[in-house]
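Subject: for your reference before the review

Hello V.,

The reviewers asked for a structural picture of the protein, and I figured it would be easier to keep everything in one thread rather than splitting it across files. Below is the amino acid sequence we used in the manuscript, unchanged from the supplementary table.
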Amino acid sequence: MTSTLFHQASRWAALLLAGALPLASGASALPRELILAGGALALCSDLGARGCTEAPAGAERQAARYRFDDAGLARALQPEIWPQAGAPDSEARRAWLTQARAKAGDGALDAAAAEAALGGVCLSARCSETDAKRPWSILLDSERGAVLAALEVPQQNAQGKRPTERAFPMQSRVEGGVAVMQAFVHAAKARSPGKPRIAVVTASGFDPMEPVDFYLSMFEALGAEAVWWPVDAAVAAAKFEKSDCTALPALRAERLGLTQSERVYPDLAAYQRAYCDSQPALMLQVQGVFFAGGDQWRMRRAFVRDDDRPNDWLLELQQAHADGRIVVGGTSAGSAIQSGSWMLSNGDVEAAVARAARIAPPPEPGCSAGARCAAGVSEDSLTLWPAGGLRLADGAIVDTHFSERARELRLLMAMQAADARWGYGADETSALRVRTFADRREIDALGESGGWVMQRVDGGPPNTVRAWYLSPGATLVIRGNEATLQLPETPDKTTRPRAQGSRSAFESGALRTAAQRLAWRCRGGQRLAASPGVAELTCDKGAQAWRGNNGVNGVGPLALRFVSPASE
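And here is what came back from the structure prediction:
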């Protein structure tokens, strides 16, 4: 690590092992608070220079590189990382990797070149595009990740230390993502007598250690102290199943597909082992917990046992949030995991409206190519889990990348299947902030665009929700089942969207544009194709509209309905 982050981590390690810090005075009077970002925050960093106003100078941390040497191939052949049915057998794996090594040569390759070498091997005279004789073509995403992780070359700086990624949020091209993270830090500061302390959870990533530096640096740049909460499925297994922290290296291979964390991230592996060996009361030491993006099912495995019971870490988190002592935030999967009703775990919007939702774990990403999906579940299936996520978003299903991936109808169908009362859908580079008081819930939007709040109404038409598109500046106040909008005293007039809008509800931003057009003039409604039916968006009685302080129209309540041919 750089010296600054090394000393910061050392200081936090001492705090974790020593016990709790004093609580902020008056923290119990604060509401339960969630900041649910939709993903793609576009924050500037060494490895995210495209999001910067100018490229950062002096970067030490570089994009990962890979080497096909004896040790790397031996790690890639470990049976622990090949547990899934339908994987190439050990003989085929060895033949494939041996030929890939010949293509790759002895040097260190970037990701594209390494994947080209792995994907270019055919174990017969001729291979089709997806073929068991072309092993790379039929691997699950997790298996591909495990192979690349086994081949990764550790990085060192001039001092022999692991170089770290630096974040520069105030140099980001897009202001919306920065505004979201600033709001999170501000909410943590409201719970702290001094500099706020924030814990970061990265368990949703394929390699939970890879994004740690970015988040620690980013929160430090925004005026907070940051610590990695080093929980993941492997640590959970070591702690709660095995009661043996010495088993961590083997469990990383078995549960995460990671075979050399101690070489690539030696400092973080040591830090995680120290955490596993200790019994820190982390929620008494921080004012905020932020969940990184990735895969919400992978994140869930860090906090929930196989029988759906929360482990001690989740119970501690739930209690601190219920007391108002901490603000919880997340982006992408880190927001979706907060679902308090059933949790969305997979599904294309087209599949969601065409086929019934399945109550099942999500299909393994990449399973279609090798015909390796579980029986009855395809890679595009809408899958839901009744036990929910971390259950901090009371009674709601949370979805992300919302308008950009046209997920409005997916959430509607999920709410119908789950009998869920509420749904939250945050757009990219934006967030929904949910504050729960004793007698009410207040929801507003942050960032570049905004987000959707949906309510299922008892006795209403099938496949219909009441919906609000929130842009910054207005607050939706919910008491029981009644929801009202609070607008600024003199809201700016809405504007006619420049985009004419799509005729298909499956296209990016289509329903958001339709809502913004209704905000400008609530007449006639909007009707978009959504095969095998249509999506209808109309203004409810008493609908209000405003122009957000980011220039984006907000409106609600609307009626969003999916109409199938059978119901016409």
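For the response letter, the relevant points are probably these. The CA atoms of residues 189 and 196 lie 5 Å apart. The chain has three domains: 3-56+164-346+356-456, 70-151, 475-567.

Happy to draft the paragraph if you're swamped.

O.
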